[in-house]
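Contributing new records

If you add data, match the layout below exactly. Sequence lines come first and carry their own label; structure lines follow with theirs. Keep one chain per record. Anything else will be rejected by the validation script.
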Amino acid sequence: MENKNNWKAWLYLAPIIILMAVFTFYPIVNTFFVSFLKDYNYTNGTYSGFTFDNYIEVLTPLYNTNGNTGTMFENVMLIALPNTLLLTIITVPASIALALLIAICLNSIKWLKSIFQTIFFMPYVTNAIAIGMVFSVIFDTQYGIFNSLFNIQGFPWIYPNPQTGQMVNYWSGVFAICVYIVWHSLPYKILIFLGGLQNIDKQYYEAAQIDGASKFKTALKVTIPLLSPQILYVMITSFIGAFKEYNSVVGLFGTDGGSFDASTGPRNMSTMVYFIYDQIAKNKVQYASAAAVFLFIIIMIFTGIQFKVSKKRVHY
């Protein structure tokens, strides 16, 4: 009887399977394929053969299509990848810790809890580019709110000072974009943590209270261990999202990735995904595909490490 009904299950699943095959699996396979094509022309789909040169040009300083030694390598390995890793290392732990703290505070509020939840969730449904433009005004050199609050008018956070010509310090730009990323990523994490907190049995807290545990110790020994599945999920999705960071760069620094003082760090704030889109815009899809495959491998490695570590630390 069960075998006879299998076709019904496949029939119900067919629409989503077809959509995933067309919009998820095929693009992934096609990206791998294009990354090995030589002289690929995206417009008419022609190529002159298969090669590893696309990966060599993106990942090594040997040569590149522009004839300038190391240009492609510098854009990926010396600018885009370090920027991506730095933003990931800073924003993921900071956003998770802050979201967990806010979720615990919201969960303990009796009055106006739903209103506060709505307020904290609003950035998630707001256009990322629009938010980036708002933050670019907040960190504006001459009229920015941030400079006004700390009485440092004229300090260039994301754009050079037009009056003095002072260039943007790389670490100032990192601070501005990290503030934006953390703020924009909080709502989703808070929502997940709130759902987990509301499912924790109250008897654990009652037992901790009877034992005389403080609120801090209760949060450390009870709340966080019981939230470990949600923390793992948020951590994995946060790492993936941070590695794919693009909108924040365009929203804050524009389509050129900004212009920084080269002596303080990389020349701009371009990320791996920014580099991929930039190569597509230049009709160099084979290099974009090679960089995308490289980024995919990095994400898989980080995800695998997190799953490996979580086996001993996640309590289901």
